[in-house]
Amino acid sequence: MKEFLDFPIVTASYGWNALFGMTERAPVLWVLFLSFLFFFVLILYPLYFLLGFTERKLAADLQARVGPNRTAGKGLLQVVADAIKLGLKESYVTRNRFKRISPVLKTTALYSTFAFLPFGTALIFVDSDVGVFLPFISFALIFLVGLFTNDGAIDLEDEIMSHRQTFLWLSAWVPAMITAATSVARVGSARWSTILSAQSHGVFSWTAFSSPFGFIGFFVFIFSGLVALQLPPFHSIDRGTRHRSGSALALFNLDQFYSLFIWCVLASALFLGGQTLREISDTTFIWAAYQLLSTLVKASLIYLLLRVVARALPQLRQDQMTEFCWRILTPVSLLALVGELVWTRLFSGGILQ
Amino acid sequence: MIAVDRLEPESALASELAFCIAVEEICNIQVPRRAQVIRLILCELGRVGSHLNFLARLALATGFETVSHYILRERELVLDLFELMTGRRFNPNFFRFGGVAADITEGFIERIHEATRLIEIRLREYHALMIENRAFVDRLAWQGILSAESAVLKGLTGPSARASGSRFDLRKAEPYSGYDQFDFRVPIGTGTRGTIGDGFDRVMVRLEEIRESLLLLSHAVDSVPAGDYLAFHTTPDFTVPAGEAYSRVESPRGMLACHVVSDGGFHPVRIQWRTPSSSNIEILPEILRGVTLQDLPVILASFNLSIAEVDR
Known about the structure:
The complex is a heterodimer.
Chain A: H1 2-5, H2 14-19, H3 28-62, H4 78-88, H5 97-111, H6 134-149, H7 156-187, H8 192-198, H9 207-210, H10 212-228, H11 246-271, H12 284-311, H13 318-347
Helix pairs in contact in A: 3-12, 4-11, 5-6, 6-7, 7-10, 7-13, 10-11, 10-13, 11-12
Chain B: H1 2-5, H2 12-27, H3 33-61, H4 65-86, E1 95-96, E2 99-100, H5 108-131, H6 134-140, H7 148-153, H8 159-162, H9 170-173, H10 199-222, E3 243-251, E4 254-262, E5 270-274, H11 276-280, H12 284-287, H13 296-303, H14 307-310
Antiparallel strand pairs in B: 1-2, 3-4, 4-5
């Protein structure tokens, strides 16, 4: 057991230790458990409520209507009211065993991404040489579960729908991986801490603003995330809400929020820079808290921007989405990758210098 | 008249008008010119409201939630005008045999001018948001294509048939209620983005019809003649002489016909309706063959069928 707890994988999670007031020798799995709990209860839930409310208010302004205003605090508690309502509602019960297994497997795969998330140079649990691609492998598990369990389909229509969604996932997954490789190509490493450190010399050292190809890559990454998670405007008819109600629906919505939010965290880490303001303080606690806050603010801003912009666009059909991915996003992401390689070769340590 | 209103809430005034024309034909009542123009104004207002509602529903079907909220804001203007004139937003119960229930409300004409100007400006915005939006056009162009021959064979009428190239409009073909006194254009489908008779044409035709109706409205309110708004006041013992009549009007969805039979008693022996949606729905088995599930809501919305009318 002791060997198991002394994790052989390289970690850069001492920031979390500092946040919890623990020494750097504390067992990694224990810190992982604590930080996951901390993230889930004190960060994810409040952000879900806060961003949900802000998004609804912004969307209401955009759509020339009022938005939530009945509950206390000028509508601020609307999300709480919604959560209570969903919690009290009866859940849809099914006898299909895949229907029961599928969400469990999917949720496990989804939340396993937490260990690979780069909240800052000192807040990464698995800082391996292929660290950048690990969250995508967790994401891949989600669609593989969908493919092999039919997502608990109870009729043919459901089965077709679940397969279509899986292949749609795949079509968005490919450009996402390629654009993630764009950032890797610039830095020359797929280790999160290296990628974050390389982008920590001001705004123009961020991958998105260091070259035009990085900027293209950033957009492709965001769009492929929207397609993969089937969020508006790339919105399918049934994105899993048809056979869910009550608390199952509430959990499903939370999962959706978590998926998009961590996609924003990944986007901010890959393209919008790291935060090594070591000079602001020698205390690891302040430094780690600053890193965490900075990542959360960046991810929240990307999240709000995406959700509000999506409201101004009509939905696309699924075949149009798949076509968009294969015909536009994938070639553009390849272009961004090749362009970034050439750009890096020319301008940093390459021919011109 | 109250029961007639329930035929289709959105085009209630068109069904009131059809019923009134039929009864007036049996009783041989001459409707004063002023009442005719008031009826025309209200019917055109109803057409604008119904078409705006169509656009809002179509925007929802394509997932364009924002635009649908914008459009419903303009429709609210139309409903406010109805309230000002008739006292009700829906089911106005306003037309009477031989005229209308009340004269033009003070300030109604000015409000109509304001509303037409505002809706005209907003239509340009919708044009930019919807018609010049490639994602929106892709959902509609080449979808649910209906040929002019099929439209005629199946008895389709209204904007859905005109989008396929048919020019039939009762307001031109058999003018009633003083439509012949005004000059207006009947837009037809041109296949600008896809082909003639596709979903996109059905939207374009209705957008153009709103524009024409707005022009017609501003002309009509400026030329309301002086005179009575009602030929006579009906008494509780009012009866219709024995006879029958068949009237046709152009409702927002197409040709609405009413057949009234009276035996001279207090109640009509028979009232039959030919509603536009009940004949327009017959085209669906032909149109929907081979259509993907995701296009279904959009194509259905583009035909603007009213189930209340079908199941009358």
